[in-house]
Amino acid sequence: MSTTVSPHFEPKDADFAVRVRASFALQGAMGTLGARLGAIEAGLVEVLLDWAPGLTQQHGFLHAGMVATALDSACGYAGFTLMPADAGILTIEYKINLMAPAKGQQFRMVGQVIKPGRTITVTEGRAFAIDQGREKLIATMAATLMTITGRDDVKN
Amino acid sequence: MSTTVSPHFEPKDADFAVRVRASFALQGAMGTLGARLGAIEAGLVEVLLDWAPGLTQQHGFLHAGMVATALDSACGYAGFTLMPADAGILTIEYKINLMAPAKGQQFRMVGQVIKPGRTITVTEGRAFAIDQGREKLIATMAATLMTITGRDDVKN
Amino acid sequence: MSTTVSPHFEPKDADFAVRVRASFALQGAMGTLGARLGAIEAGLVEVLLDWAPGLTQQHGFLHAGMVATALDSACGYAGFTLMPADAGILTIEYKINLMAPAKGQQFRMVGQVIKPGRTITVTEGRAFAIDQGREKLIATMAATLMTITGRDDVKN
Amino acid sequence: MSTTVSPHFEPKDADFAVRVRASFALQGAMGTLGARLGAIEAGLVEVLLDWAPGLTQQHGFLHAGMVATALDSACGYAGFTLMPADAGILTIEYKINLMAPAKGQQFRMVGQVIKPGRTITVTEGRAFAIDQGREKLIATMAATLMTITGRDDVKN
Q1: Which of D23, D55, D93 faces C96 most closely, judged by CB atoms?
Q2: Chain A residues with CB inside 8 Å of C142's CB?
Q3: pTM across the whole model
Q4: Which among A120, C52, C123, D124 has the fewest CB atoms less than 10 Å away?
Q5: Are B110 and C1 an interchain contact pair (Cβ–Cβ within 8 Å)?
Q6: Interface of chain A against chain C, CB under 8 Å?
Q7: Along the 156 residues of chain C, how does pLDDT read in single tens digits?
Q8: In what order do the strands lie in the sheet with B36-41?
């Protein structure tokens, strides 16, 4: 009861990892952050990030906005892994709880699908800071995505 | 009844604008985004941003994470204007609704205090895209802030 | 800039108030709460509530869940006023900030549409407690709604 | 990586279950809902609920507000299990994602602490509908709580 095991999801398109990598590469913001993809599974995507002076808040820690940006990407691409090949994806909304300062040298964001749907997909994210080799949970996210089909302007 | 007028707030420290500018200047992330401060009033702060290729998502619009980062800053500094001179501020959580693609050349984020408090302050934000001179509401935020006193590591 | 005026919305169905009243009357939970409708405009709905011993939390104030239930209804029906006559509505998610104890004899919840859409509608809500005749803001909500057409099981 | 195991928390007061039951019994709203406590562990509380005609929305399913009320209680009391004996608790805010209609005869809400803190505690909740003996996830919640000490009016 006190354990949540990630459910097994069946992807609609076997090439989901290729689609995720292609879309990620088009995001200028991910390049600016120096973010890169880690694990890509059906319903789960990791985004990895290193500390850099251009990503800080006023105390020198990683800016919460950078945490949220990378975590939102992880959630969005987690949803994207389960969508049809011709679908685009929009984040309708997300909510983030910032539980500890983003103090560390590396950061690992994990997005997971909780409930896939034809129109609406619900995801959750966890952000971890790795400080001197120790990993700590620093933020949680709940993000709601919408699948878009038949619109070229939002095809990923 | 269908109109919300911003309440009048009494700042605890008359030099709040100086404190906001000093803290903002320390944020490496704001420099990376090219974000700058607009209006600074008691309980209200504007953050301004220009489109740039390093801030985009896969369709070339401003990345939702950049919208959220600038809007979160506007909300946080809105709360900061009403805090005592020696206080630091932490964003506990925020929620953002993304209502339209961030399509435009300039962006204006407005953060406003809804309810200040000794420990907890509630703020709301509005993000506007300016496209060919026309301003459009693209996102709303609700952010919860905590005032921190007596801790040097989170003094702004 | 520091003032938000409710935008003017054009309803798709002139009989929206009739539809709101009919749907509201079918909700057993609204009867249990003793909630009733106040103003019904295009894009705005009020829900009114009185204190009762069966609606309290452990200190005798109105339970936050009752505040949220009535406020969620106000937001949902605000969205419903702008939908086509044959549409149903689902709340996808909401977020509530509880800013003060719900101390009072009467309560007024106001839901307003911020951005209507064919599929997704974004709304905001304000809950007020009326204590000895003085009205106080006690909670704010952001709620995301989905319009459903062609499904009898969710037709309102 | 794709599995979340509930962390082990050390309660500050060994009699936490007694405190939870005493506070729960004082909530008139829980009586109106017919809600009752299930498991009470350090950092985890279950709230159980049966379908009743006075708890319905317009299609006869459990009203989302009733789901949220019981789930918010589960989250709040989960946080309460880890607080000192003389502390009170306030829900600052919560966010709920409604993923499926609350169709069923019984409902089980589970609240769990993600990050306890001296002032701020972050919790997550899961709501399940039990329909003809089959349990289905219908909602997730993220709730932020504040510990209050030295104030009689919010002592639980």
Answers
A1: D93
A2: 93
A3: 0.93
A4: C52
A5: yes
A6: 92-93, 95, 119-120, 142, 144, 146
A7: 334 456 789 999 999 999 999 999 999 999 999 999 999 999 999 999 999 999 998 889 999 999 999 999 999 999 999 999 999 999 999 999 999 999 999 999 999 999 999 999 999 999 999 999 999 999 999 999 999 987 666 655
A8: A36-41, A44-50, A106-115, A120-131, A134-148, A88-98, B88-98, B134-148, B120-131, B106-115, B44-50, B36-41
